[in-house]
């Protein structure tokens, strides 16, 4: 539990900022909101694409596997949308309760989960398009390649940056 004096104490992390816990929570909240704006835009584009697909004349040409993947992707798009809106709902429910640091921690977790969902959605949409326009083998190659790309960019690169920073700060 944080006392009022803890919330007003300056952050002792050596990141060059002299800010209180409340100031840090405000800054982190603003950064999370910006991330959510970017995520929502991408999710809205994918969701709009998926919803439009069902009303295209060639939709009836999808085989059973493609229709199943399509339905899964629509559900993932809905989940991504709900997750992207959840921090705003959480903020509204906690507004004025002096719980910004708690809000930031929970919102950050929701954003991480949403990134996983959006990654799966992006990979799935790409796979479905390649499967429909080319063939199943190309779709499977696309699935593996795009999954690896997401893993590398969202997990491996950040881990490498953190590792390099830790190594550099030790020297």
From TrEMBL:
<feature type="transmembrane region" description="Helical">
    <location>
        <begin position="109"/>
        <end position="130"/>
    </location>
</feature>
<feature type="transmembrane region" description="Helical">
    <location>
        <begin position="67"/>
        <end position="88"/>
    </location>
</feature>
<protein>
    <recommendedName>
        <fullName>Sodium:proton antiporter</fullName>
    </recommendedName>
</protein>
<keyword id="KW-0812">Transmembrane</keyword>
<feature type="transmembrane region" description="Helical">
    <location>
        <begin position="136"/>
        <end position="157"/>
    </location>
</feature>
<keyword id="KW-0472">Membrane</keyword>
<dbReference type="InterPro" id="IPR046291">
    <property type="entry name" value="DUF6328"/>
</dbReference>
<dbReference type="Pfam" id="PF19853">
    <property type="entry name" value="DUF6328"/>
</dbReference>
<feature type="region of interest" description="Disordered">
    <location>
        <begin position="1"/>
        <end position="21"/>
    </location>
</feature>
<keyword id="KW-1133">Transmembrane helix</keyword>
């Amino acid at each position: 539990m944080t006392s009022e004096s803890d919330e007003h104490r300056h952050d002792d992390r050596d990141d060059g900022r002299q800010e209180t816990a409340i100031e840090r929570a405000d800054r982190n909240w603003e950064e999370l909101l910006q991330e959510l704006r970017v995520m929502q835009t991408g999710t809205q584009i994918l969701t709009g694409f998926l919803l439009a697909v069902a009303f295209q004349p060639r939709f009836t040409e999808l085989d059973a596997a493609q229709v199943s993947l399509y339905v899964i992707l629509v559900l993932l798009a809905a989940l991504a949308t709900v997750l992207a809106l959840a921090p705003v709902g959480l903020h509204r429910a906690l507004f004025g309760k002096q719980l910004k640091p708690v809000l930031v921690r929970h919102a950050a977790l929701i954003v991480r989960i949403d990134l996983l969902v959006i990654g799966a959605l992006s990979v799935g949409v790409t796979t479905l398009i390649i499967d429909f326009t080319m063939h199943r083998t190309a779709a499977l190659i696309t699935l593996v390649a795009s999954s690896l790309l997401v893993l590398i960019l969202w997990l491996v690169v950040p881990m490498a940056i953190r590792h390099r920073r830790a190594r550099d700060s030790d020297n």
